[in-house]
Design goal:
Elements (H helix, E strand, L loop, with lengths): L2 H8 L8 H12 L4 E5 L5 E6 L4 E8 L4 H15 L10 E2 L8 E5 L2 E9 L14 H18 L18 H8 L6 H18 L8 E4 L8 E5 L5 E6 L6 E4 H12 L11 H10 L4 H28 L4 H17 L4 H11 L25 E2 L19 H13 L2 E2 L21 E2 L2 E6 L3 E3 L4 E6 L2 E5 L4 E5 L1 E3 L6 E2 L4 E5 L6 E9 L9 E2 L4 H7 L4 H4 L11 H10 L14 E5 L2 E4 L4 E4 L12 H13 L9 H13 L6 E5 L2 H16 L4 E4 L8 H5 L18 E4 L15 H18 L5 E5 L14 H11 L3 E5 L15 H4 L5 E4 L10 E5 L1 H6 L14 H16 L2 H22 L3 E7 L2 E6 L10 H13 L2 E2 L2 E2 L5 E4 L7 H17 L2
Parallel strand pairs: 11-12, 26-36, 28-29, 28-30, 30-31, 31-32
Antiparallel strand pairs: 1-2, 2-3, 3-6, 4-6, 5-6, 7-10, 8-9, 12-14, 13-23, 14-22, 15-21, 16-17, 16-20, 17-18, 18-22, 19-21, 24-25, 25-26, 27-33, 32-33, 34-35, 35-38, 37-38
Helix pairs in contact: 4-7, 4-8, 5-6, 5-9, 6-9, 7-9, 9-10, 9-11, 11-13, 16-24, 17-24, 20-21, 25-27
Length: 975
């Protein structure tokens, strides 16, 4: 086929065939009738027909395409359909007279038409975000398809096609004329030239076979797995099938994924890994892959620009053009060398390290043993109370260390805490690809290897064979362009005599671009190959210790009991906290929206100082007499309603609720206890007995002891009765249980419930519910226990205690979690009469509860809550956040309701707002996606379909908005 033929094809609009005309073709030639809808296409015209029983696709093609080419497509479909390991493909449907390809004439123009079975499933293109599992599955599908086509041949495969990446250069030249913006045209043209040049040396080694050449989001169909992730398993539209490069087939797939990548080309690596595991690529193919991805991106943009110019009504192309521009920008955002290194590493291909044995000293007058290496990582002892956000903190710490030791240096390969950005949906570039040395001014600097001197701004570069040394901070003694020998002096450290100067050192093998000083952690494995460690120049101590990563998790799982779960399947390793943020070992900052334990925020210096002072002075148990226990007990009693003036100090919420139950039993002489379904109160034998949440214990409903009487959950959103006025209806369940207890004749011990339905996601109880239940319980001699462990202590903003919202006063209050800000501290507040009832069973003692340190922690937390107005902050920021979340209900059908108040909120996801079918799997996926975006969030409720929003009370409006924006992004883009 000639280039002239290809040129004519490039100028073809879609066939001018209306839906009515398509319906007539289907009726007359195929005997099919039904509802017709047009499907998008570049140059064909496609219609889907739904007959009521089956769905089919009518494909209308210009006569410029030979029948032999269409026959090859049909033959490939049949070939794949006969292979069990191949992806799903549509079935070719013959016309009523047995033809698979039919010539039809519409308004004096003849076209070729075919009908295929409509392959059911979801496409990928219009899902802005695809998880790693979907990306991997697409790569695997592409490999399975190529493997299945390896033994397929047909004369119609040898065709001239604009998408054939073997012809990318000439095709681009023909297409570029359609781009009217000269700057954009030149940029695209230069990119194609660079890509073609990189491919050319490898071209003879690139395998040829039958390839689909268009395994993209538009041309695959998917099913959803058990985690509601899209898993492609079928292939449609064989219009681009050719005999072409195997690696070109994968390049097409990788390019299609880039519009899902949010600008990060490393996003496609799971697809490459999955492909390579099934259908391995050779070394030349791996090296040619990224230039071919770039070439494909050029052809996509140029082709769509041209198609719009000749077919301006083609909305399919117009919509795709925006995506294709995004693909192009992402494809060229990272140098070819970097992507080649990333691909080779992903495929398990090792690259030889730079040979350094013959190198001469960089600093010949310096003993490398003198260098003090400064820890600037996440766990560095130099950092506290957010001081790492101060300007030039790295340099100040480096200069201080140099003043003490004479010479100091930062470490290569270290994840710098000072580089962490707060409220960022993308990881910060924290991985250091360079080293800074602080040393006496005037110190001689020499060339470690032979090379040519290059000057760039304030940087001197020694360009050697296959390696460059970038240096900044010296007064050069050699001219630009000079050739230097190993060991030759090239300058001295800048600065006045007797002062300290700075030398920046970076090695790099990158061609034609300046290396960055830092890179994002997930890209470090590639960048570190191109910017290797300067250990040969500065000593092995310059390399930061590597993170244990998966090994540490394995150690945890080897010895830390399995029932003690961790968040996330692949949890980030958190090693620092500050206010409402957590920082992992790679310097990623996460907004902590789930940690109700640290009510003040993480790393509060005032609390740390108070604990340190008390621990140095005294720490023992509560049976000794000391000031703090009296003062703290007095403070707690003053916070409770009148009459609740007696305090027990314990070390957890579980212990507090367990003790509350014992108090009820001791005071009433009975054991039978009422509790709510869907509730959680702790893990001790007693507190677990009244915990009925099946999310925490799947056997909860069948394993309660005989003294526990759960009553219907008063869930005003999805319970048996709905709305805030449903208290009377729910009271009937309580009365029924009380009747059963009365029939036993063993008396009633009491009733325990959270004042706000915390475990169900912060749902408010029906108006008047607690008042009605408390009255019934007290009338039968029972006591009323308010579990405030999660919802109390100012978290609700509008109230200090949750029970205040219900207008009641309990007999016993239990608290923990936030009252210690992470320190093991809990309390039970009750009346003196109830407290003294316990003496019948002996005395009570909790080893950590009531210790001097615990009491100081508790008082300091109360002081900070007051001094920093954190309850008021919970009200203001919580109300703002609730408004932001409520707006999501109007825009996203998955969002069923917003529960709670202050900074105890719940966002409930449902698949249907009428049936309220819980969106359990979606909620888990949303939490995982939020982690990617820098937000810590977990599900709650019996169906695990509610986001449990309970951050530190220091959360700012900016933090609340970041969370709401991240949620909006996830709900809009997918998960």
């Amino acid at each position: 086929m000639t280039d002239e033929t290809l040129a004519r094809r490039l100028e073809l609009p879609r066939p001018d065939v209306t839906a009515a005309e398509a319906a007539e073709i289907l009726e007359s030639r195929y005997g099919l009738s039904g509802v017709i809808n047009e499907l998008g296409s570049q140059q064909d015209r496609n219609y889907r027909i739904d007959t009521g029983e089956h769905r089919y696709v009518l494909k209308i093609c210009h006569m410029a395409y030979e029948t032999l080419e269409l026959e090859a497509q049909n033959a490939a479909i049949r070939h794949l359909g006969a292979k069990q390991e191949a992806p799903r493909v549509p079935r070719v449907v013959a016309s009523t007279d047995g033809q698979e390809i039919v010539a039809v004439t519409v308004r004096d123009e003849t076209f070729q038409v075919r009908v295929l079975e409509y392959l059911e499933g979801e496409g990928l293109t219009h899902h802005h975000y695809l998880p790693t599992e979907s990306v991997s599955a697409l790569g695997a599908l592409c490999a399975r398809l190529a493997l299945a086509l390896a033994d397929f041949s047909h004369a119609g495969l040898d065709r001239s096609l604009q998408w054939d990446l073997r012809r990318a250069g000439p095709v681009a030249v023909q297409l570029l004329s359609a781009i009217t913006n000269s700057a954009a045209r030149d940029r695209i043209a230069k990119t194609m030239v660079s890509a073609v040049r990189r491919v050319q040396p490898y071209a003879p080694s690139l395998r040829l076979q039958a390839v689909h050449h268009d395994v993209t989001g538009d041309n695959v169909v998917s099913h959803r797995d058990g985690h509601v992730r899209l898993i492609p398993d079928g292939v449609i539209d064989f219009g681009d099938i050719i005999r072409g490069w195997v690696v070109g087939d994968l390049a097409v797939t990788c390019a299609s994924l880039l519009h899902h990548a949010d600008g990060d080309p490393f996003y496609v690596l799971p697809a490459i890994r999955a492909y390579h595991e099934i259908y391995p690529l050779n070394g030349e193919e791996l090296r040619a892959l990224w230039p071919l991805v770039v070439a494909r991106a050029v052809i996509l943009v140029a082709s769509s620009e041209q198609q719009i110019s000749i077919d301006p009504e083609n909305e399919y192309v117009r919509k795709n053009l925006e995506l294709e521009r995004r693909i192009f920008d992402t494809a060229i955002s990272t140098p070819f060398d970097v992507m080649e290194a990333a691909i080779l590493k992903t495929a398990g291909v090792s690259v030889p390290a730079v040979e350094t044995e013959a190198w001469q000293p960089l600093l010949p007058d310096l003993d490398l043993q003198q260098i003090a290496f400064v820890d600037l990582g996440v766990e560095s002892q130099h950092f506290a109370a957010g001081n790492w956000f101060q300007a030039d903190m790295d340099w100040r710490l480096l200069a201080r260390a140099a003043a003490e030791a004479g010479v100091a240096a930062t470490r290569y390969g270290e994840y710098r805490l000072t580089r962490a950005n707060l409220r960022s949906m993308t990881p910060s570039a924290t991985y250091a690809l360079h080293t800074d040395v602080c040393l006496p001014a005037g110190t001689t600097v020499a060339a470690p290897f032979a090379g040519k001197i290059e000057r760039s701004n304030h940087t001197l570069v020694v360009a050697g064979e296959g390696i460059k040394l970038h240096l900044a901070g010296l007064d050069a003694s050699v001219e630009d362009g000079a050739v230097v020998e190993p060991g030759q002096a090239i300058g001295a450290i800048s600065g006045e005599a007797s002062s300290l100067g700075g030398l920046r050192v970076q090695l790099c093998t990158l061609h034609g671009a300046e290396p960055p000083l830092f890179c994002m952690p997930h890209q470090a494995f590639a960048w570190s190959q191109l910017c290797p460690s300067p250990a040969a120049l500065l000593g092995i101590g310059v390399e930061a210790p590597s993170s244990e990563g998966a090994d540490l998790l394995n150690r945890r799982q080897a010895h830390f009991a399995v029932p003690q779960k961790h968040y996330y399947d692949n949890p980030p390793q958190m090693e620092r906290g500050w206010k409402e943020y957590l920082f992992d070992v790679e310097g990623r900052a996460y907004l902590d929206m789930v940690n109700n334990v640290t009510i003040l925020g993480h790393g509060h210096p005032r609390l740390a100082e108070a604990v340190s002072e008390q621990w140095l002075r005294l720490n023992t148990n509560s049976r000794f007499h000391f000031t703090a226990i009296a003062e703290f007990s007095e403070r707690l009693a003053s916070l409770a309603p009148e009459g609740l003036d007696t305090v027990f100090l314990v070390n957890s919420g579980s212990e507090a609720n367990d003790l509350a139950l014992r108090l009820a039993w001791a005071h009433t002489g009975a054991r039978d206890t009422l509790c709510l379904l869907e509730a959680y109160h702790g893990w001790t034998v007693g507190s677990d007995a009244v915990s009925t949440s099946i999310a925490d214990n799947p056997q909860a409903l069948t394993s309660r002891p005989e003294w526990v009487y759960p009553v219907i959950s008063p869930n005003i959103y999805r319970g048996e009765f709905r709305g805030p006025d449903s208290a009377g209806d729910y009271l009937q369940s309580v009365l029924s249980a009380l009747g059963t207890i009365e029939e036993k004749g063993q008396g009633l011990a009491g009733f325990i419930a959270e004042s706000v339905y915390g475990n169900a996601g912060g749902i408010s109880l029906p108006d008047g519910y607690l008042a009605a239940v408390y009255a019934q319980v007290r009338a039968r001699g029972g006591v009323c226990i308010a579990d405030e462990v999660q919802v109390g202590y100012g978290r609700l903003g509008h109230y200090f205690w949750g029970f205040e919202q219900q207008g009641v006063v309990p007999d016993i209050i239990t608290i923990a979690k936030g009252m210690g800000n992470g320190h093991p501290l809990g309390a039970v507040i009750t009346t003196r009469a109830i407290a003294e009832s316990l003496q019948k069973e002996g005395y009570f003692f909790s080893s950590a509860g009531g210790s001097p340190v615990s009491c100081v922690v508790g008082m300091t937390v109360l002081d900070i809550l007051a001094d920093e107005s954190l309850q008021e902050n919970a009200r203001l920021v919580g109300d703002h956040l609730k408004r932001r979340l409520a707006a999501l209900v109007d825009r996203h059908p998955l969002v069923g309701a917003v529960h709670g108040m202050g900074l105890y909120l719940g966002l409930e996801f449902v698949r249907d707002r009428t049936t309220l079918e819980p969106a359990t799997e979606e909620t888990a996926a949303i939490c995982s996606r939020l982690l990617d975006l820098g937000v810590i969030m977990q599900p709650t409720g019996d169906h695990l379909n509610v986001l449990k929003i309970k951050p530190p009370l220091c959360l700012t409006v900016e933090g609340a908005d970041f969370f709401a924006d991240a949620l909006e992004k996830v709900l809009s883009d997918g998960w």
